[in-house]
Each structure stands twice: as structure tokens, then as C-alpha cells.
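To: structure subgroup
Subject: Chain for Friday's discussion

All,

I'm putting the inputs and outputs inline so they're searchable in the archive.
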Amino acid sequence: MVTRRLWVDLDSADYAREALSFPGLRLLLRVDSEVRGGGVVQTETRYFATSLEPGRVTPDELLALVRGHWQVENGLHYVKDRWWDEDRHYSKQPGVALGFAVLLNAVVTVLRATDDPEENVPLRARADALNWDIQQAVRLLTGKKL
């Protein structure tokens, strides 16, 4: 069972916008999550900043946006960093880091777009299999044999 509590701070948002030069900042959020299961309770606090107008968004909408953010984080960034160690790849040469990020996004997109739900093979296992079978990888990307 998951319980989420939302805290909205307008005063600190005003301070951050003015004193810390965050133009457009309207809301600072704190989300406390409590997960109970199997006799174990895990708690986590996360902070967010947004330019949404306070009077135009409801607490339920804010929580939905937070959950949407974490779906992207867990579905894409976590995969790229944990599986392909993206955060440790850097280059001082202009364009190389961007090229690596674009290539990695393309790989994840292709792997997800060509997924066969009947095979039920995890994304990482499919990527590893293609690493060992370059001809299959080329066929997957181009539709042609090497």
C-alpha cells in the first residue's frame, strides 16, 4: 500500500524565484511517500519545482504530474544509467556526449518498438543478445542482412 502526501510552498517559491534567479518558478513541492508491504515500511521524500500557476492546478493534478515524472525517470533514465552506465560517459570533445545520448535513446527506442510480447524477454536480455549477434542487430535496424 502506498500513501503519498503533498506539501506546496508558495513563500519559498517566491524567494527562490527572486533571490536565486529562477524565473518562472511558481511552486515548490514536497512529496512524502510511504510504502507498506510485508511488514516493512519504506519512506521517501522528494522535492520538485514547477512553473505551474497555483490557482490553476489541483493537488491531485500535481501528484499525477509527479507520478508521470517518475514513470519517465524509471522507464528511460534508470534503464540508460543502470544498464549502460550513461552518467559515467563524458567527453570534453564537443558533441560526443550528445551523440552518445542520442544513440542510446535510439537503441532503447528500437528495442522497445520491436518487442515481441509473446517472447516475454526483458529489454536488457534482448540488448545483450544483440550484442553477441551483430547480424541480427543489423537486420533489426535496417531490415537487411549483413
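Points worth raising on Friday:
The helical segments are 10-19, 59-84, 96-113, 123-132, 134-142.
The chain has two domains: 1-84, 89-146.

D.
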